[in-house]
Amino acid sequence: MNPIGAIDPARCMKCGFCMSVCPVYIHDRVETHVARGRNMLIKMVAENRLPRDNAYRASLTYCLLCRRCESVCPAGLLPAEITIHARHDVVKKSRPSLLRRLVHRAMVGNRAVIAQLIGMASVLPGVSVKNGKPMRHLAEAASILSGNLSLPSGALRSFARPIPRHARPAAGVAVKGRIAIFPGCVFEFFMAEIARDMITALARAGFEVYFPQGLSCCGHAVYSDGEFKTARLMAERNIRVLSNFDRVVTGCATCGSALKGYAGWFEKNDPMHGLAADLARRSVDFTQLLHAADFKPPEPAGIGRSVTYHDPCHMRWHQGISESPRRLLQSISGISYREMEGADACCGLGGAFGLTHRQIGLRLLDEKMTAIRRSGAQTVVTACPGCLLHLKAGARRHHLPVQVLHISRLMAGPNP
Ligand code: SF4
Ligand code: SF4
Question: Would the CB of 18 count as within 6 Å of ligand 1?
């Protein structure tokens, strides 16, 4: 089907198959919170039979954009993309709030501003540092504001240990390729140790790794909000910076989904469309590349030996990746892999959804925690910074004694 047809809500067959899998609808049973009902609303608004009122706008927020429903839709629709385009339609017709414009344009669109603000916050005496040691004030404040979601202890210290710009395989190891790492905002600014683990594993696997200068945010959150203009600026910048690398690797499921999807952000007759399609061909998830390179992860230290894996929606449903992380984990000597029930079910975060619709998000998180508990695993591994933070919050909420780790921690080996 052509892409226009896939985002035409009028093509919805009203079969309701999406209702059997939609995490939001399964919980609240509200017809306008699932693809079938929302498609009808969007169609009626496009035909001027309904206003773009508050109820309509609210219904557009009740989607995790998980893309789970695409896998069962007999009409081949892309309901999440239909919702995003409807949000864009609202954005076009109403001037966004000053705060929203500030966040999207000045903050997210300008990486130097983020870096400067975080850099200042990371060294504020009495706020984030006391006697040279990190304090938890900012993280705890964020935790209260966000319903128990918080950055890990010492996150701001990541800024003081930046990601290396270049790494080579050890002497004598055949170089398999020259690759760029795309860490994404969270791994660059708050969890740089994850990016460092990725680089360690990739160099060990034989890749020469570069962390290019001048990257932007991947733009996924901005695009998902319907702010296409800003999102395209971000994509354009990344496409240009990454143009000279054989492969572009990310360990962030959300960034991976964006990098592979940029072509859909531009009109076919836009010169950026072809460049974006080329970037998609060169973009690969960290686990895919390691698995394809037949990487043998080192035996881990300080990690619970029974391990389970949570599929981020942006990996499983956006990119169709589920095998490579499992195969890598199962190949680790001394690890007992345990599949949890519903490993591919959303953790409930879904970007801003988990904050704006916290009750639904928490119910999904509670189910995930029950599945983890039942698996008996000591360690939960995932491949998305959002899932990582949400699962950690879930473990705290349920007093579940599990480690929650990004998969790169198990690929890099013991900490240096
Ligand atoms: S599964 Fe597809 S065609 Fe069927 S109701 Fe849902 S969106 Fe419409
Ligand atoms: S994308 Fe996810 S949350 Fe949105 S309608 Fe589809 S299944 Fe439901």
Answer: yes
Of 76-85, 109-118, 190-199, 233-242, the one with minimum mean pLDDT is 109-118
CATH architecture of 297-412: 3-Layer(aba) Sandwich (3.40)
Domain boundaries, the chain: 3-93, 98-158, 160-291, 297-412
Q: CA–CA separation, 198 vs 154, rounded Å?
A: 19
Instruction: Tell me if 395 sits within 8 A of 404, measured CB to CB.
Output: yes
Closest ligand 1 atom to 72 CA: 1
CATH architecture of 3-93: Orthogonal Bundle (1.10)
Cα separations (Å) of 69 from 58, 62, 225?
20, 14, 19
Residue among 31, 36, 66 whose CB has most ligand 2 atoms within 8 A, to mutate: 66
CA 146 to ligand 2 centroid distance, Å: 22
pLDDT over 60 at 412, yes or no: yes
- What residue owns the CA closest to ligand 1's atom 4? 15
Torsion angle (degrees, nearest 10) of CA 282, 285, 291, 294? 50
Residue appearing with tokens 């702010």 = 227
How many angstroms separate the CA atoms of 136 and 134, rounded?
7
Q: Are 395 and 402 in contact (CB under 8 A)?
A: yes
281-304 pLDDT per residue, tens = 999 999 999 999 999 999 888 888
Q: How far is CA 149 from CA 127, 386, 393, 394, in A?
A: 19, 10, 6, 9
Two structure tokens written together for 158: 């990541």
DSSP lists the bridge partners of residue 166 as: 210
Q: What is the residue type of 360?
A: I
